[in-house]
TrEMBL record:
Domain of life: Bacteria
Taxonomic path: Bacteria, Bacillati, Actinomycetota, Actinomycetes, Micrococcales
PROSITE patterns per record: HTH_GNTR (PS50949)
PANTHER family named among the record's database cross-references: HTH-TYPE TRANSCRIPTIONAL REPRESSOR YTRA
HTH gntR-type domain location: 11-79
Keyword annotations from UniProtKB, A to Z: DNA-binding, Transcription, Transcription regulation
GO MF entry, a single one: DNA-binding transcription factor activity
SUPFAM superfamilies xrefs: Winged helix' DNA-binding domain
Gene3D superfamilies: Winged helix-like DNA-binding domain superfamily/Winged helix DNA-binding domain (1.10.10.10)
Full protein name: GntR family transcriptional regulator
Protein source organism: Glaciihabitans tibetensis
Length: 117
């Protein structure tokens, strides 16, 4: 599991970590059932505060990517298609929000297309 954080990025470290873990789960680098490093161990490895790793792990657990087994550790969740489910939920939330703001569907799609580049 190769993780690295950019200290000069405007993206918070917990979010950088979260995004990298999701990408590794999605591309199969981290398989279901894989045990992740402890919070303290990963924090030491990345030279960041343990609470940063804890926040990333908790958010990934809430999103269904990870499962905590207490003292036994944190593992990649065995549920299939978690990334697709989360993408669909995010798309629905985005669509609802742009409708509330009165933004046209064409403009909303243009924003997404630009953001994905």
């Amino acid at each position: 599991m190769a993780l690295s954080l950019d200290p000069n990025s405007t993206v918070p470290p917990f979010e950088q970590l979260r995004v990298q873990l999701v990408a590794q789960i999605a591309d199969g680098s981290l398989l279901a059932g894989t045990r992740l490093p402890t919070v303290r161990g990963l924090a030491d490895e990345l030279n960041i505060a343990p609470n940063t790793v804890l926040r990333a792990y908790r958010e990934l657990e809430a999103d269904g990517f990870l499962e905590s087994r207490g003292r036994n550790g944190t593992f990649v969740n065995a549920r299939a298609d978690v990334a697709e489910q989360q993408a669909q939920l995010a798309a629905r939330a985005y669509a609802d929000r742009v409708q509330q703001l009165g933004i046209s569907p064409a403009a909303a799609l243009a924003y997404v297309t630009t953001a994905l580049k």
